[in-house]
Amino acid sequence: MIALAQRNGEATRIETRPCDRVAELGKTISASRLGLWFGCRLKFYFRYVVQIQKPTTSAMHAGSTVHAVLQQWNMARWRREPFSLERFKTVFGSQWTALQEGMKINWEGEEASNRDSAWRVLQHYFTRTPITGNEKPEAVEVPVEADLSQHGLPKLIGIIDLVRAGGRIVDFKLTGRTPDSEQLVHVHEAQLTCYSLLYRDATDRKESALELHHLVKTKAPKLIVTSLPPSTESQISRLFRQIESYQAGLARKDFVPSPGLHCVCCEFFNHCRLWC
């Protein structure tokens, strides 16, 4: 099988890694891998099978920085440390710099504006968050796994951003536009169902709720909090069928492209054009 790589700005052919990489991927499944698989199988192939490394984009860097600051904010509440906006502004600055080490980000002269925008949305979140300062988290950034072998499925793995007191699972998302409430529930259903299974396997308890916290990085920052009930048996069954489809396609090495509007911003666009 032929893979593609980027050399001197052009996509070129290279030999793939051994087929045991496909076998390795079949042993576990995560929400992010499953989502990419159903978005575009060829993109999945480039990212996870051939493992082509792409430069970090400005949006990715902003997301990583915001995520790192929120993680430290959650840990500070877990330690019962008092909140200080200036403290987390300093944390933001240090993370913004540290996460660029070894990276080549094409800012196109917009680093300062990107940095200001990322901090503004964080500041807005700290002001509007539904999480009170005295609420101690149940868990923060915990790697978890669930054995699904009894269902004939691979091991489910993942990292949950935050579990609030009482078993409320929270996932943070940084976005550049206001999400549609109906669409976001549909788009993130598989991910949230994965988190439900992971939480239940780790605690032997059912989550009390699922929450999506969208930090919207518009000119005037917004916070969209979507609260959902625990995952249903129907949603879990739906997820299992999706994982079965993933397993079957992976076994067939069914790495076909899925052309669409999402191709416009795909980092593997040139690679895809050479696919055969």
What are the SSEs and their pairings?
Layout: E1 2-7, E2 10-15, H1 20-25, E3 28-30, H2 31-39, H3 41-49, H4 58-78, H5 85-98, H6 111-128, E4 139-146, E5 155-164, E6 168-175, H7 181-187, H8 189-203, E7 209-216, E8 222-228, H9 233-252, H10 269-273
Parallel strand pairs: 3-5, 6-7
Antiparallel strand pairs: 1-2, 4-5, 5-6, 7-8
> Could you name the CATH class of the domain at 139-240?
Alpha Beta
Q: Summarize model confidence as the mean pLDDT.
A: 92
How many β-strands, per DSSP?
A: 8
Q: Report the biggest beta sheet as strand number plus sense, adding barrel if it closes.
A: 6 strands, mixed
Provide the structure class. alpha/beta
Question: Poorly predicted ranges (pLDDT <50, ≥5 residues)?
Answer: 1-16
Helix amount = 40-55%
Number of helices: 10
CATH-assigned fold name of the domain at 139-240: Lambda Exonuclease, Chain A
Question: Which term fits the overall shape?
Answer: globular
CATH architecture of the domain at 139-240: Alpha-Beta Complex
Looking at how many chains there are and whether they match, the oligomeric state comes to single chain
- Estimated radius of gyration: 20 Å
Strand content: 15-25%
Report, as a whole number of angstroms, the end-to-end distance: 10 Å
| N-to-C order of helices and strands | EEHEHHHHHEEEHHEEHH
